[in-house]
Structures are given as structure tokens and as C-alpha cells.
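Hey, quick one: can you model this chain's 3D structure?
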Amino acid sequence: MKKSKAFKWALFLAVVAVWATGCSNTNSNAGESAAAGQPTQNPFEADGQETAILGSIGHGFANPPLDENGNILPLEYNGGELKIDYSVRASGKAKNVGFLVFVDGQPQPYKFNSSDAPYEYMHIFDLAEDDKDTPFAFVFTPVTGKKGDTLQVSIASVYNPAFIPDMKKTASYGGYQTTLEAGRPLVFNRDADPLDVSSIPRQEVLSHVRLSTEPVTQELLEKHSVMGQVDMEALDKNVYSDLYIEGDVRQDHFQVERSGTLHVAFKLFGHPGMRYRNTFYLNHKALAGKDGISFETALTKGDVTVIDAELELEKLEDFNTFYVVSVPLNADDFPDDVVVLMKTPSLLLYKGSEQSGR
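Sure thing. Here's the predicted structure for all 358 residues.
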């Protein structure tokens, strides 16, 4: 599984066609938005066409060492900052790219290419040419790890992360901001050095985080059966998620107040025995609260795991990209199943004008 994620997915199967049919066409709230007079057009469709390939992207570890069987060897940590040599190639709109990095499912801030660069949770950059390998490096001190540990490094590209709807010409992310994951084990030959907390970007926006469970309902199964039948048997091998804003699933945009709090709930269910670490992101930065920066959940048969939280609206900008990333922690326990990093569709949280009070 790890060899596949490190090599085959990221280098061979990573030339992903991003189709412009868009999330808005399958959004469960699309009818509601249209009824409210809000724009629901897909901003990424080619004129006169229902679908169009907007771009492709592939990425992976650059020149990784191999063992005698041709398998990629793990990364090794020997103290100080770790440097991971990497490469990306893309075409079309996918040439605007950003990367999220995780160590054992925890969001890992990193420096781009140089130890002198600032720590960021995502560095966004534009590739100069179509389908040309562009080398670069992740540089960081791991956020976790003790001598003798072998932890998974997960690297996820985000497609065209610079895009954000303006609620004038566009109101949906369409096919943008999907992810593609690569991974590789990291062996710790010594404890991770302490990371200077002041150097890490920190957004303390979350409050009142609560973890709970609730039963899977028939209504929930029917809601997820749009693209095919989802029943209790399907939950034995697949994982599903929903992001609720003030009690309803939202997938395109939501107008918020300029102050106060916003109730959000992330729900994850399916494949019994799977464990995930979940992180909320705002404008591609991991959100923190007094309860931490990521939250571990374990899936059990017949149950939905729920993470409830409040967002402090005064700390939001006027336009905000909001999503949740769930990183599997025990994929090796299920070698015959496809277990991958998951990201909810990006959601626009936006504030109205001062005059309107919204």
C-alpha cells in the first residue's frame, strides 16, 4: 500500500483529468440555492460544452533510493530539519498548485526549498510550463516522532488552490481544489527536535470542540446514494463524510455574520476499524483551538463520528476557503482496501457588506 502511494499513484496514475462537470451539479443544496436566487453556475465549463479537461497534475519523491527489490526505502530523520526532495508536473489550470504535508496525520508546516523560508501549512506556486518536471523541496522539523518510531508522511496536492469564488461571476469551486496524495514512511533515528512554536502560523479560530457519535440512519444512506446504492454493507469498505454549517450540509457557499460564532459539524462514517486524524482548514491554514489542531476519530460499525466546533467569525476574512482533511492512521491494517486521504469539497464562507449588517 505504501509503495503504491509513494510511487505508482504519485508518478504514474497522478495525471488526473479534472472534469468541468463541477461539484455544483451534484450539490445536494443546488436546488435550494437556485430557489434563493443565488448563482449556481459552474465557472469551469468550457463554453458550449458539458465537460472539458481543464488540466492534469502528477507529483512524487525525486530520485528516491530503492532496495534490492526495487521498492522505495523509507525517509530517515537524523535530527535538525528534514529535507524531502520532490517533483511536480502539471498542465492547464493545474499549474497553480499547493501542497499540504502531514506526519502521522498531523498537519506539518514546512519551508519551501530553503531553511531561510518561513513555515507555512501550504505554499502555493505557479508552474511555468505544461508537462515539465519541476523539482523543489519540503524542509521541516517534524511536529511529532520519537527515536524508533516509523510514521507515515502524507503529501497532498491541492489543485488550483489560489481560486476563490467572488460571489459575482462565480459562486462555486467546481472541480477546483481536489487532492492527490503520495506517501512514504519516515523512520526516526532520534527524537524530533523541538519546533519553535512562534515560527508556526497559528489561527486560533476554533472553540468548543466536541467529539461524539450518532447512529447511521436510513435517511443518511439515501442521501449518499445519489451516485450509486449506499447501504450498510457498502459501509464495511467505504468511508463517507459530510460538512454541516448551522445544521445543514453546504458544498458551495454560505454567508456568515461579521461577528459571533458559526456552528460547524464534520461527520465521518463507514469502514469499521479505520482511524483518521481530522484537521479543519481556513484559507489553507490549519485551524487551532485550545483543544488542539487535529482530532482523532475511530470508525465503528453502525455509527457516525461527529466533530462539533464553533468558528469565531471576527477572525475570518471577508472571503474564506473552508474544508476538512482526514488522514488515515492505520491503512496498513487493511492492505486489500483502498484507504486514502480525504478532503471535503471547499466551501466559501463570506461576509456581506457592513451596510447590510451581513
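One thing worth noting: DSSP finds three helices and 23 strands in the chain.
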